[in-house]
Amino acid sequence: MLTIKNIHTYYGDSHVLQGVSLTVNEGEAVALLGRNGAGKTTTIQSIIGFNPPRQGEISLYDRNVTHLPSHRIAQLGVGLVPQGRGIFPTLTVQENMTLAARNAGNDGWTFERVLDIFMPLAGRLKNLGSQLSGGEQQMLAIARALMTNPSLLLLDEPSEGLAPLIVIEIGRIVAQLKEQGLSILLVEQNLSLALSVTDRVYVMNKGRIVFEGTPSDLRKQEEVMHRYLGV
Q1: Which of helix, strand or coil describes residue 191?
Q2: What is the CA radius of gyration of the chain?
Q3: Rounded CA separation 17/53 (Å)
Q4: What is the model's pLDDT at position 204?
Q5: Which of 13, 100, 135, 145 could form a disulfide with 166 if both were Cys (CB 3.0 to 4.6 A apart)?
Q6: Cα separation of 82 and 183, whole Å?
Q7: Per-residue exposure over 125-156, b if at least 16 CB sit within 10 Å of its own CB, e if not
Q8: Whole-angstrom Cα distance, residue 142 to residue 163?
Q9: Would you say domain 1-77+189-231 falls under CATH 3.40.390.10?
Q10: What tens digit of pLDDT does each residue of 52-108 get?
Q11: Helix or strand (DSSP H, E) at 218
Q12: Is the Cβ–Cβ distance between 32 and 22 less than 8 Å?
């Protein structure tokens, strides 16, 4: 589904991603892990077109999307849940959810189907985004992305700043989305959450991939866990 080959991405003259390659297969959940500043969010921004790479290639369903504008990449089936949630505080929950909704028929992510997963939002539809708790805002950010009917969901730090019980709920939601066939690329600092819901793991350090394997493989790599993840 998603293939990234040897991409190099810059911020000005700063060479952030230095030959990153990774894949996300259809129906697969993949984690991208690493310390702050490793290049994880830059990878997400490169995929969605906010900061395209200067070298390398990003393909979606074997189509080169490396230099497409962000709205075209989204139209091809990529949904983004950005770091910091990015909900609209002066819009209601329902308005946030339907603002960028894309109809995909009865088999897609309809308003009702999304609310079945995010039941706490069902009673808050007329509340403003600013009136929600942090956990509810994160649910809303994911729900809004699902309403675009993506085939690939990019999740950038969904557990950031949330209470432990809410982190567990976010993990349950991610696992449920995977079970329903959605492909997921998860950027996450919470190692326990990431390893519990994904099929494969990449670890980044200073703009490079330094490990690739299953969650079980990573748990056995004590040096990688300690050196690059601080565990």
Answers
A1: helix
A2: 17
A3: 8
A4: 97
A5: 135
A6: 16
A7: eeebbeebeebbbbbbbbbbbbbbbbbbbbbb
A8: 17
A9: no
A10: 999 999 999 999 999 999 999 999 999 999 998 899 999 999 999 999 888 766 678
A11: helix 215-220
A12: yes
